[in-house]
Design goal:
mainly alpha, 228 residues, 63% helix, globular
């Protein structure tokens, strides 16, 4: 497995200043992963063993369908379906359930697993460099914003993995990057709602027209819509 495709230098990513930096990293890794799986990985037995075992989530299957090589996707599905024929229940049939209880939703995904692995490495490197490099701290604080899910993830990760000397400083940077965006979105959505009041007829929409899409992206780590 070529781990290099799942590695992005921290400084290189932060210099782009493209929305939430963690979301930007995930988008790059998703694109690299899908292209790799639909291309060179087809000939790597260890990758096929893992994709047969884990499969893919609906989101990443949809991305794979956008690739031009439908034969590669068909071959991946063929071997995955053959693997499922041996054990269609997977791990869902294990464990005891109480009467009237449903088993937990089971969804495994090769791409999600690799991105999670890469994200942990990215967080680790980010915290190391934040504590050691003033330039990196400055660059981090210049990011446009952090989405809510990644704000929460970084907050939890830093509490367990960042030197206590830097925890307060780093947490303040997280608060600044997330809460400013939260305030702006709330104001934009409120303005959007206000524009449907008859008393606002002829008023300026400001930045509110795409506030619904931007708010959903902020709340869910979804892809930001293109600006009009």
């Amino acid at each position: 497995m070529q781990e290099s495709i799942f590695t992005i230098p921290v400084t290189e990513l932060l210099e782009e200043k493209n929305g939430c930096p963690i979301c930007a990293m995930v988008r790059v890794l998703e694109q690299r992963s899908v292209e790799y799986i639909m291309g060179a990985a087809m000939m790597e037995p260890d990758v096929r063993i893992e994709t047969n075992r884990l499969g893919f989530c609906a989101h990443h299957f949809a991305q794979m369908r956008t690739q031009k090589n439908r034969l590669s996707l068909a071959l991946i599905l063929q071997s995955h379906l053959q693997e499922l024929q041996k054990n269609p229940m997977g791990s869902a049939g294990s464990g005891k359930l109480k009467r009237g209880q449903l088993p937990p939703k089971e969804e495994s995904c090769f791409v999600c697993d690799r991105i999670q692995w890469a994200q942990v490495r990215f967080f680790h490197t980010l915290l190391q460099q934040y504590a050691a490099q003033e330039d990196l701290r400055k660059l981090w604080k210049e990011q446009p914003f952090l989405c809510l899910p990644h704000y929460r993830q970084l907050t939890a990760y830093a509490k367990q993995n960042l030197d206590k000397h830097w925890q307060k400083n780093f947490q303040q940077s997280l608060d600044d990057l997330c809460l400013k965006q939260l305030d702006e979105l709330e104001a934009d959505v409120s303005h959007y709602c206000k524009m449907f009041d008859y008393r606002s007829k002829g008023s300026d929409w400001g930045n509110s027209r795409d506030s619904i899409e931007r708010s959903i992206a902020f709340l869910t780590s979804g892809e930001m819509p293109s600006q009009p």
